[in-house]
Amino acid sequence: MPLFFKISLFFFYFFFVISSSPLEYNHPLESLALFELTQVTNIVKNSYFPLNVTFHYVGLNEPNKQLVLSWLSSTHHPALPREAIVITRIDQKTHEIIVDLSSVSILSDKIYNGHGYPMLTLQEQTAADELPLSYPPFISSIKKRRLKLKEVVCQGFAVGWYGEKRKSTNRMVKVMCYYLDGTVNLYMRPIEGITITVLLDQMTIASYIDRLIVPVPKANGTDYMGSKRRRSSHESNSIKIVQPDGPSFTLDNGNTVWWGDWKFHVAYDMRAGMIISLASIFDAEKEEFRSVMYRGFVSEVFVPYIDLTEEWYYRTYFDAGEYGFGLCAVELEASKDCPENAKFIDGYFISQDGTPGKMPNVICIFERYAGDIMWRHTELAIPGKVIRKVRPEVSLVVRMVSTVGNYDYITDYEFKQSGTIKVTVGLTGLLEVRGSIYTHNDQIKEEVYGTLIAENTLGAYHDHFFTYHLDLDIDGHENSFVKNNLKTRRVVNKSSPRKSYWAVVSETAETESDARIQLGSSRGALEMVVVNPNKKTEVGNEIGYCLIPGGSATNPLLSDDDYPQIRGGFTKYNVWVTPYNKSEKWAGGLYTDQSHGDDTLAMWSLRDREIKNKDIVLWYTFGVHHVPKQEDFPIMPTLSTGFELKPTNFFQHNPVL
Amino acid sequence: MPLFFKISLFFFYFFFVISSSPLEYNHPLESLALFELTQVTNIVKNSYFPLNVTFHYVGLNEPNKQLVLSWLSSTHHPALPREAIVITRIDQKTHEIIVDLSSVSILSDKIYNGHGYPMLTLQEQTAADELPLSYPPFISSIKKRRLKLKEVVCQGFAVGWYGEKRKSTNRMVKVMCYYLDGTVNLYMRPIEGITITVLLDQMTIASYIDRLIVPVPKANGTDYMGSKRRRSSHESNSIKIVQPDGPSFTLDNGNTVWWGDWKFHVAYDMRAGMIISLASIFDAEKEEFRSVMYRGFVSEVFVPYIDLTEEWYYRTYFDAGEYGFGLCAVELEASKDCPENAKFIDGYFISQDGTPGKMPNVICIFERYAGDIMWRHTELAIPGKVIRKVRPEVSLVVRMVSTVGNYDYITDYEFKQSGTIKVTVGLTGLLEVRGSIYTHNDQIKEEVYGTLIAENTLGAYHDHFFTYHLDLDIDGHENSFVKNNLKTRRVVNKSSPRKSYWAVVSETAETESDARIQLGSSRGALEMVVVNPNKKTEVGNEIGYCLIPGGSATNPLLSDDDYPQIRGGFTKYNVWVTPYNKSEKWAGGLYTDQSHGDDTLAMWSLRDREIKNKDIVLWYTFGVHHVPKQEDFPIMPTLSTGFELKPTNFFQHNPVL
């Protein structure tokens, strides 16, 4: 490091120690605080001064798992190293920098030369979106279409990869433009036929094609802001959740949540969004917290569109790796996005230039009381007695909403008193539609890759695959993955009046290949359990948690050799299990934008590592094939899907008595 | 009819006209009122006087669909015939009697000579349960086990059919006994080894076998009534739903519910339980109610246990057909079974001797506000604007709980403003466990057909299959069933940089065999839609409702040739479609107890009738294979599963703007 950098770092350090009052962080997995983010980006910027540094990602480089676990089990909670991982572009190169906050120094700085690029920044997307508006060929395209330029809004999209050999400097987006003029629902008014390619590092339009003119769908009927009251709707009386004594959970200043028997940590990350860490549940009999999940987060959201037309074929998004599931998180509205009894957490992100920004109310936490029943029984069999005991269900929800352009993803973790963690993703927001010449189905004779959901409006077919990284630590760190197959057996020797029955045939996965599961015909007849093979219940059952798929454990429909599917290879199986490896976080690879699929979960898993009685990570992918319907226009009713993690002989008995 | 019967009927009629003040019923599908039930059973009893008549079922013989529909569409709502269907045993024969309430006469009276018997009555079950307690061999068995007779409680179970050729008079149950002595949770304390067969018509013990002595599991830890507060649990603050201006729905005195755009009728039936009829939704643009479902109800609940041991092999219950899903419905507790804002409906059933009984608060209706989001979007793409619009989800739930012995089934219909009907079944209550010599898994070397969930307690493997009868009338009565297959296609001629895509290949079922679907590998890549082929949206899409399976569309694991599976043949496919036929209501046959499987949905469907553009009925079966866990002991946390019926191009656009 040149001397003058060292000096400036020195001054910087003093500046910081004097001027900022760092909050004492009390959790080693707590997201970087505002002052830490500033510190990190200053260190990097100073180190490269006077070069221009663009920041694509800054997040906590979490301490080694072993350190965190000993921190957790110690009574005095020793301070752990605070490090940041920074992904930048400097001089058209991708840098992966580790910054140590206690020594205020750069620990490592690697240039990444492989395929793929870092997450897009909000600023470069905005800049790219504005380019066409002053680009004469575009202006003339707009004129030719008799549209008003001031009503045009553009949006850049990741371009994917289709086998091209590109130079590493070719970071680009394709910009698609939309028309307002009477609506705020721009996505329902695409200006089709134009392909604008923008080089991001250079921030220039690299290619411009105006191929054909297609009618822009009309504004009428697209607006979702209006409150046209419909004659038929009875005025709904107000309905509220009230907790006169306030919520029952505690949220400490390090974002650890205590609720009922549960304890867990909530963090915000620019890429993953919400991260749940160190979820554990108090066992009253053992008088201790027992671990369930070390970390759980959205690793990737793969959204391939199915439209093969020139302006659409490339649209195969990786919403976490390309846009940042956390970066796209939005402020939650009290009493609307979350009920009246919710508490909110802020998040902090880094702008392209290194300035930290606050995301107010980006996560909410609330107790959910939906009128459900936790357990009940009415007993009428005892003569002279009527026994009834009912426990209403109250659970705790942690929510983030990520709006990646048109789509709004509602991501919930619901903690139940029974020990279950229910994960739900709700899909709402706006469809990505293609403008079309057609106003009626009868006119359509070609393949249009979508549903005509309004005049001139094709709701494009697409898929959503949500891949969760679930580092389960079931009552300890060494776990195994067990498949309990329910198998039909024939009765032999007429030993019973029956002819058949079923048995549970258990199989413990030895290596990664044993744990790849495509859910399909075996559904319902397969239990998937992460167990701790080193502990048993008193009657000798393996202590575990079961993965219970929700309604839509969808498998890919694209061919294995298709480029988007190579990049999204991790969706091939619904379940994968890998040995814990701190670097294996992002199922689509660390550098997903324009990736070639050489750093995905599917590739890591080829090593077929041992996973029996190891610290293992469960990856679960579910999703929907979305054939749009007219009801999805102009804004989609929420479609929910997800999965559950359910205690399976984890407790000696029902923990909520 | 002998003269003296006619005379007594005449007097009876006068008696009734004078003494009772019949409520003017205003809905042709309204359950029989108390006075009507009295009238019906009196007519039957008088007609057979002095013979003893036992009543197994009395319910509304609903008017022909065409009549109901014209009633609905007429403005003056002409009175429709009120008829009852009565199933009785008279002189050891099963009678199927239709009673007309307006003419106070028996319209038809058929003796049923086929296989199977009517539903068991509560009274005969109670009588059978008491027999062992005064039966000397049983008393000596209890003594031999050093148990106290006064702590013994017995329960009769349907015996199934295993190929035997029985006389039609052999109505029987097998009685299983349990031990209280320190707990109310009798089901956790089975007294194993004894098989007691009771002939019901004779109410005598036909056979008694005491085969072996097995330890009775201990009482300690089985009680769910106690409120042992656990040290770790933070005291939960109270949480309530409040509607200061009251609920937004209207429930008229004929049990028609009006809520938002929805209108539907709720009825109680001794066999089906809750029945939803004539569900329709107001279309503000068309200014009319558009039909969605003519009738929806639980047709059968098949619960085969998997245990082959002598005392267990026969346990393959049909909870609706044998015990009556409605007859087993229980009183719902305000603020526990249903939230604070619920309204309740009573039900009326018939005792064995013809006396009507009231089931108070058997159904509840409430608005559900769970903190969910109906739809939302945050729009940041418009320069200088931040647009956010969020609509919280409020839905309407109609609930009944049926406690069939040990199990409690929570059945919900949730009506959403978006037009979706979500059907959920929650399973809770108590497991059926087998007493066992084992106190630890390591001791077990034989097949035990269950999980050791506590000492001496095997939670027996079993399945639950819920079969719903869904007479959908999508915007009219003539409907078709369409399978939309999402099929992978290869890109040809390098017409796109991609190599594959998917297309929607639609197939309309012509006959019943085209519509039998075993959900499995095709999951997620198959849409199942009931459409009205005679109507289209403005842009030309077929108007429809989609069946969306929930998490567990389970298929049977028993062999096709196994007796329980022959009787439960309707579970072989998750989906069946039949042409509407008033007599085809009960998937397991009208006479399910000891049935031979010759009157099931599977048999009716063999006729392979035409179903295209017909009045059709959709049958959907889902379920769970239950491998019990220690957490299910001593009372099970609710396990929920179900399906959705979702508008699919039914509306021109999202109906909730």
UniProtKB/TrEMBL annotation, chains A, B:
<dbReference type="GO" id="GO:0009753">
    <property type="term" value="P:response to jasmonic acid"/>
</dbReference>
<feature type="domain" description="Copper amine oxidase N3-terminal">
    <location>
        <begin position="118"/>
        <end position="216"/>
    </location>
</feature>
<feature type="signal peptide">
    <location>
        <begin position="1"/>
        <end position="20"/>
    </location>
</feature>
<dbReference type="GO" id="GO:0008131">
    <property type="term" value="F:primary methylamine oxidase activity"/>
</dbReference>
<comment type="subunit">
    <text>Homodimer.</text>
</comment>
<dbReference type="InterPro" id="IPR015798">
    <property type="entry name" value="Cu_amine_oxidase_C"/>
</dbReference>
<dbReference type="InterPro" id="IPR000269">
    <property type="entry name" value="Cu_amine_oxidase"/>
</dbReference>
<comment type="similarity">
    <text>Belongs to the copper/topaquinone oxidase family.</text>
</comment>
<keyword id="KW-0732">Signal</keyword>
<keyword id="KW-0801">TPQ</keyword>
<dbReference type="InterPro" id="IPR015800">
    <property type="entry name" value="Cu_amine_oxidase_N2"/>
</dbReference>
<keyword id="KW-1015">Disulfide bond</keyword>
<dbReference type="InterPro" id="IPR016182">
    <property type="entry name" value="Cu_amine_oxidase_N-reg"/>
</dbReference>
<feature type="domain" description="Copper amine oxidase N2-terminal">
    <location>
        <begin position="27"/>
        <end position="111"/>
    </location>
</feature>
<keyword id="KW-0186">Copper</keyword>
<dbReference type="InterPro" id="IPR036460">
    <property type="entry name" value="Cu_amine_oxidase_C_sf"/>
</dbReference>
<dbReference type="InterPro" id="IPR049948">
    <property type="entry name" value="Cu_Am_ox_TPQ-bd"/>
</dbReference>
<keyword id="KW-0479">Metal-binding</keyword>
<dbReference type="GO" id="GO:0048038">
    <property type="term" value="F:quinone binding"/>
</dbReference>
<dbReference type="InterPro" id="IPR015802">
    <property type="entry name" value="Cu_amine_oxidase_N3"/>
</dbReference>
<feature type="active site" description="Schiff-base intermediate with substrate; via topaquinone">
    <location>
        <position position="407"/>
    </location>
</feature>
<keyword id="KW-0560">Oxidoreductase</keyword>
<dbReference type="Pfam" id="PF02728">
    <property type="entry name" value="Cu_amine_oxidN3"/>
</dbReference>
<protein>
    <recommendedName>
        <fullName>Amine oxidase</fullName>
        <ecNumber>1.4.3.-</ecNumber>
    </recommendedName>
</protein>
<dbReference type="GO" id="GO:0005507">
    <property type="term" value="F:copper ion binding"/>
</dbReference>
<dbReference type="Pfam" id="PF02727">
    <property type="entry name" value="Cu_amine_oxidN2"/>
</dbReference>
<dbReference type="InterPro" id="IPR049947">
    <property type="entry name" value="Cu_Am_Ox_Cu-bd"/>
</dbReference>
<feature type="modified residue" description="2',4',5'-topaquinone">
    <location>
        <position position="407"/>
    </location>
</feature>
<feature type="active site" description="Proton acceptor">
    <location>
        <position position="319"/>
    </location>
</feature>
<feature type="domain" description="Copper amine oxidase catalytic">
    <location>
        <begin position="239"/>
        <end position="657"/>
    </location>
</feature>
<dbReference type="GO" id="GO:0009308">
    <property type="term" value="P:amine metabolic process"/>
</dbReference>
<dbReference type="Pfam" id="PF01179">
    <property type="entry name" value="Cu_amine_oxid"/>
</dbReference>
